[in-house]
């Protein structure tokens, strides 16, 4: 399948600051793409470039095979859902949703019919005659979504759309966003700094940092096999420690020599990471040795344990133990893991 | 102890209220004076001086002039303030901070100096003294005010709303007329009425820049030359009444905005 | 960028004015300024202006602060808005009319003198009109209202948590006020003081109506140059001097004005 959107070698400078540094990215039709990264990583800049609110300093943006690099927002097949929703405060919800159609010369009755239809799609059929200030945050969010969807864009751009909502509502809206995306079949590009949101929504997850793409792929792959140290820390928690590649896939660690498959050259310094859910107590092929449990936090379905390792006291091991595990702070115990769970990070 | 403090604050408040209202009450009270001196003892109530005022064609025409100048100059100041605030808020303008400083500068400069400057300028380029020149003066003094009010209402959120409109296909003029202006309607209304109040009240600039036809404050000034006179009280009370109406309209729009 | 044209109009006007002011006498000359500093009755006007303005500023703040405090803290919430609107209602009377009203009150046979004589406090009406006292009274009246408004707004902006926190940590009402409320409202007071200073020093109406011609202030002097003599260059020079004084005042208080903005 041909990509719907192609970003080719795009860079963006603001004065001496490089917001985007030679970024290339393909977006497939009907996909849900998440741009994930901390603030200042360039994810919002990239979204603005896709939406046409910024013309990149270098590079090209192709949408549906057409060069859109410096095309005005209105002229490209994208619409944007803004972080603050940017609803027109003086218009009713119906007029807000119908605005794009009005600008396209659609007659009043037809406009209202289609606006009503999209409002139904986002689950707000009763809001048509209300003013934005009469709605709750979640409802406004849906109106903003409806307003952007009604003009049937090829790509819908969402700038931290759930950022202003509280946690519970955010989780609920996530599910709805995904469902709506599946139903309308429009490609969604969604910016967030919330990794859980990313994992829940993304078909294609793009991790960004310092204006570059650190990692991209299916969310599951990015989590289980992160391409870089940054993406390992940003997507989920882990314990990271240093290693040095020796001969024949043997890696020297503070806990002894481990046999691990790696493509890194012999002699190179690498980082190793282990997810907390893969740390076990007792015996497993790879041992961290003895550690003193520092803190145990009961979290309902599991216990979050931090422990100081005897072999490297500066390192804090993070483990997620079963909720019924008998551990207490101050206890000393053996921790270990399985070789297939160790993440070898060459960047 | 607490009681004493309470009593002291009440007395203080009453005294200040008394001080604040003393001249206004005196003014209004003696506008109903029956005899020809607005000093005690009070001899009214009588509407005699109000009749005199309304029969005075100079005063009534000045009142009309004042209203016309106030309405037109305020509308113009609001419009220009809106356009300039919009320009500053939405476009990159070199040395924006300096220019913004300059545009609000007249707020801190005495009206006398502005009037003086305009007088010298109009003299130099040959614009005669008239209601028109006074009106221009009022635009000059009210523009910064309208600019400041409107500029403060055009933040990032409003910019995003305009961006959304553009994204959905609105042309620049459609953004202005369908989104920006209606969105700022309460602020536009407030600027207009505040300008009206100031223009209505303004003396020095009108005094310097008009000649034969003039505004009400200048006409009242002329009346003052005849010393204390209940007629002045009457016309002053009328002016006060009109100002109160302006202020109430202003308050109402502000209230409506807050309720949102 | 086309909007730039709209700002250009008032700017160019101001710029041209300042230029014509400078060379008004034909060619660039400082003669007007020299004339000002050479004539003691002119410099006296500047001194008078500064004195009156400073007195007005200080007295107004001293009167308005407690009043604003009473309105903000002692009056029940639901009456506050009404109390405030009432307190500044006369603010909206025409400037000329307001000054005239004070003339009525303080006239030789006016309300104040009349009352004092009737009460037997004084035997003869005292001369109140056309003195510095009247000018100051008129000014203070206006600025008490203005400052009450600004200080009230300031006090209301203070989060009640500050006061609760201070009380919680053991400060009595007096110490809370001195160490918490007063410092926090200080920037607001400075803004009000600056506003008072600027407006008072440039005002013509109040001193002209209430003070008369016994003691000239700067604005009166400027008007005199225009009205009686048609001496625009000198009047312009005086205006520039007055603006310079305001600028100095601004620079002096800029530190606090900035804090307010931040």
Order of helices and strands of chain B: HHHHHHHHHHHH
Number of helical stretches of at least 4 residues of chain B: 12
Q: Which value, in Å, is the CA radius of gyration of chain C? A: 22 Å
- What is the helix fraction of residues of chain C, given as a range? over 70%
Assembly form of the protein: heterotrimer
- What fraction of residues of chain B sit in β-strands? under 5%
Mean pLDDT across all residues of chain C, rounded? 73
CATH topology of chain B: MetI-like fold
Residue runs with pLDDT of under 50 for 5 or more positions of chain B: none
Record keyword descriptors for this entry.
B: mainly alpha; MetI-like fold; about 0% strand; globular; C: about 260 residues; mainly alpha; 12 helices; about 80% helix
Protein model, in words:
The complex is a heterotrimer of chains A (347), B (260) and C (262). Chain A is an alpha+beta fold. Chain A has two domains: 5-231, Rossmann fold (3-Layer(aba) Sandwich); 237-345, Beta Barrel (OB fold (Dihydrolipoamide Acetyltransferase, E2P)), CATH 2.40.50. Chain A has helices spanning 43-51, 93-103, 108-121, 137-149, 167-184, 195-201, 219-224, 229-234, and strands at 5-14, 17-27, 32-36, 58-63, 66-67, 78-81, 155-159, 187-192, 204-209, 212-217, 239-245, 250-253, 256-259, 269-274, 280-281, 286-298, 302-309, 316-322, 332-337, 343-345. Chain A has a six-stranded mixed sheet, sandwiched between helices. In chain A, strands 13-12-11-14-20 form a five-stranded antiparallel sheet, with no helix packed on it. In chain A, helix 2 (93-103) crosses helix 3 (108-121) and helix 3 crosses helix 4. The longest helix of chain A is centred in the middle third of the chain and has 18 residues, at 167-184. Chain A is elongated and about 75 Å long. The model of chain A has no long low-confidence stretch (mean pLDDT 86). Chain B has 260 residues and is mostly helical. Chain B has a single domain (57-259), classed as MetI-like (MetI-like fold, Orthogonal Bundle), CATH 1.10.3720. Chain B has twelve helices and no strands. Chain B has helices spanning 2-31, 48-55, 57-90, 96-104, 111-125, 131-152, 156-167, 172-183, 185-201, 204-209, 216-224, 230-259. The longest helix of chain B has 34 residues, at 57-90. The mean pLDDT of chain B is 79. With 262 residues, chain C is mostly helical. In chain C, 79% of the residues lie in helices and 0% in strands. Chain C has helices at residues 4-23, 31-38, 40-74, 77-87, 95-106, 111-118, 132-157, 160-168, 173-201, 205-211, 218-229, 232-261. The longest helix of chain C has 35 residues, at 40-74. Chain C is globular. In chain C, 41% of the residues are buried. The interface between B and C is large, with 69 and 67 residues.
């Amino acid at each position: 399948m041909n990509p719907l959107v192609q970003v080719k070698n795009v860079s963006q400078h603001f004065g001496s600051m490089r917001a985007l540094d030679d970024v290339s990215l393909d977006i497939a039709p009907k996909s849900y793409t998440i741009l994930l990264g901390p603030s200042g990583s360039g994810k919002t800049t990239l979204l603005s470039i896709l939406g046409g609110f910024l013309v990149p300093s270098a590079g090209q943006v192709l949408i549906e095979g057409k060069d859109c690099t410096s095309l005005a927002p209105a002229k490209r097949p994208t619409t944007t859902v803004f972080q603050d929703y940017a609803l027109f405060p003086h218009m009713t919800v119906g007029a807000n949703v119908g605005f794009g159609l009005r600008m396209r010369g659609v007659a009043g009755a037809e406009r209202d019919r289609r606006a009503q239809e999209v409002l139904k799609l986002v689950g707000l059929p009763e809001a048509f005659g209300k003013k934005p200030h009469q709605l709750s945050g979640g409802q406004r969010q849906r109106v903003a979504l409806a307003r952007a969807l009604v003009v049937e864009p090829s790509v819908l751009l969402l700038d931290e759309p759930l950022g202003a909502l509280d946690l519970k509502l955010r989780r609920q809206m996530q599910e709805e966003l995904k469902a709506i995306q599946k139903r309308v079949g429009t490609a969604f590009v969604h910016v967030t700094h919330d990794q859980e949101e990313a994992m829940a929504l993304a078909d294609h997850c793009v991790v960004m940092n310092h204006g570059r793409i650190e990692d991209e792929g299916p969310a599951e792959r990015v989590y289980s096999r992160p391409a870089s140290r940054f993406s390992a820390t940003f997507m989920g928690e882990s314990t990271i420690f240093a290693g040095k590649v020796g001969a024949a896939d043997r890696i020297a660690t503070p806990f002894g020599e481990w046999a691990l498959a790696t493509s890194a050259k012999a002699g190179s310094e690498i980082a190793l990471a282990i997810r907390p859910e893969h740390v076990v107590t007792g015996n497993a092929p790879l041992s961290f040795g003895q550690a003193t449990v520092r803190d145990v936090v009961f979290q309902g379905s599991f216990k979050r344990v931090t422990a100081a390792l005897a072999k490297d006291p500066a390192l804090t091991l993070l483990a997620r133990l079963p909720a019924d595990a008998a551990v207490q702070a101050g206890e000393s115990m053996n921790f270990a893991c399985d070789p297939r769970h160790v993440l070898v990070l060459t960047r | 102890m607490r009681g004493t403090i309470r009593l002291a604050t009440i007395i203080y408040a009453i005294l200040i209220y008394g001080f604040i209202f003393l001249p206004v009450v005196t003014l209004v009270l003696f506008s109903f004076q029956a005899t020809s001196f607005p000093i005690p003892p009070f001899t009214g109530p009588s509407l005699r001086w109000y009749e005199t005022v309304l029969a005075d064609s100079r005063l009534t025409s000045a009142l009309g002039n004042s209203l016309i100048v106030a309405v037109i100059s305020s509308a113009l100041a609001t419009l220009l303030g809106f356009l300039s605030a919009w320009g500053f808020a939405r476009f990159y303008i070199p040395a924006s901070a300096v220019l913004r400083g300059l545009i609000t500068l007249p707020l801190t400069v005495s009206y006398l100096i502005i009037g003086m400057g305009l007088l010298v300028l109009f003299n130099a380029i040959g614009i005669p003294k008239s209601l028109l020149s006074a009106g221009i003066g009022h635009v000059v003094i009210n523009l910064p005010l309208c600019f400041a009010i409107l500029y403060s209402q055009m933040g990032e959120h409003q910019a995003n709303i305009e961006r959304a409109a553009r994204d959905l296909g609105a042309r620049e003029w459609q953004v202005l007329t369908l989104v920006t202006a209606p969105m700022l309607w309460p602020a536009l209304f407030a600027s207009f009425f505040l300008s009206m109040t100031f223009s209505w009240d303004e003396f020095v600039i009108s005094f310097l820049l008009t000649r034969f036809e003039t505004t009400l404050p200048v006409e009242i000034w002329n009346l003052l030359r005849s010393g204390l006179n209940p007629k002045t009280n009457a016309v002053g009370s009328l002016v006060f009444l009109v100002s109160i109406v302006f202020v109430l309209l202003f308050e109402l729009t502000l209230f409506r905005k807050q309720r949102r | 960028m086309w909007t730039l044209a709209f700002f250009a109009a008032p700017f160019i006007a101001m710029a041209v004015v300042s230029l014509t002011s400078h060379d008004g006498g034909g060619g660039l000359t400082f003669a007007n300024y020299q004339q000002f500093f050479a004539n003691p009755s002119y410099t006296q006007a500047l001194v008078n202006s500064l004195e009156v303005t400073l007195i007005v500023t200080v007295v107004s703040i001293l009167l308005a602060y407690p009043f604003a405090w009473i309105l903000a803290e002692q009056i029940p919430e639901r009456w506050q808005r009404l109390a405030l609107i009432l307190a500044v209602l006369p603010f909206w009377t025409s400037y000329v009319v307001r000054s005239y009203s004070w003339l009525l009150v303080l006239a030789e046979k006016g309300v104040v003198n009349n009352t004092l004589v009737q009460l037997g406090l004084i035997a003869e009406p005292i001369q109140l009109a056309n003195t510095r006292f009247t000018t100051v009274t008129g000014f203070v009246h206006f600025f008490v209202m203005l400052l009450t408004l600004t200080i009230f707004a300031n006090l209301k902006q203070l989060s009640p948590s500050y006061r609760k926190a201070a009380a919680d940590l053991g400060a009595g009402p007096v110490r809370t006020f001195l160490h918490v409320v007063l410092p926090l409202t200080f920037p607001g007071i400075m803004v009000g003081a600056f506003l008072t200073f600027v407006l008072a020093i440039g005002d013509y109406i109040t001193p002209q109506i209430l003070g008369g011609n016994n003691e000239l202030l700067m604005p009166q002097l400027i008007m005199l140059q225009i009205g009686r003599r048609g001496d625009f260059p000198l009047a312009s020079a005086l205006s520039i001097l007055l603006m310079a004084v305001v600028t100095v005042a601004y620079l002096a208080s800029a530190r606090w004005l900035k804090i307010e903005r931040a």
